[in-house]
């Protein structure tokens, strides 16, 4: 069964990675999302020019629904015999704090890496977790 959690505490990346290790798995894919110091990108310019700097982020969630949706994301990947861990922080996060940990352990690397990619892409689209990015006096809401 997948390990799914929303938490206010810092994410223990090494501890979660250790939970993925097992003799039957030869590939472990991990995605760790951190808070960066910029808010917006000018996607029209080359290299995504910085337009605003982030002081901090506050994550909020409809927690019961978020857990339900995260379990839905993990289920098909687990059904292929993989181990899945998804942990997302909520509350106040500073620049460089870890916001999300996604780990998939599989027999082979391809499934592990594809599983991580699939989860993070769908998480951003379907899971009711929102972020308020604060830059001085400016607040921006997003997913």
UniProtKB/TrEMBL annotation:
Transmembrane segments: none annotated. It comes from the Bacteria. GO terms for biological process: Mo-molybdopterin cofactor biosynthetic process. Pfam families: MoaE. InterPro entries: MoaE_sf (IPR036563), Mopterin_biosynth_MoaE (IPR003448). This is Molybdenum cofactor biosynthesis protein MoaE. It comes from Lactococcus allomyrinae. The lineage of its organism: Bacteria, Bacillati, Bacillota, Bacilli, Lactobacillales.
């Amino acid at each position: 069964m997948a390990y799914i959690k929303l938490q206010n505490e810092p994410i223990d990346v090494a501890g979660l990675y250790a939970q993925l290790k097992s003799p039957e798995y030869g590939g472990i894919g991990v995605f760790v999302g951190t808070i960066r110091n910029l808010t917006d990108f000018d996607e029209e310019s080359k290299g995504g020019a910085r337009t605003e700097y982030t002081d901090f982020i506050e994550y909020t969630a409809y927690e019961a629904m978020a857990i339900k949706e995260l379990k839905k994301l993990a289920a098909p990947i687990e059904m292929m015999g993989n181990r899945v861990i998804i942990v997302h922080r909520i509350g106040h996060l500073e620049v460089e704090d870890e916001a999300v940990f996604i780990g998939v352990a599989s027999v082979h690397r391809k499934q592990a890496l594809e599983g991580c990619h699939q989860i993070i892409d769908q998480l951003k689209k379907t899971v009711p977790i929102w972020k308020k990015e604060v830059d001085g006096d400016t607040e921006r809401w997003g997913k």
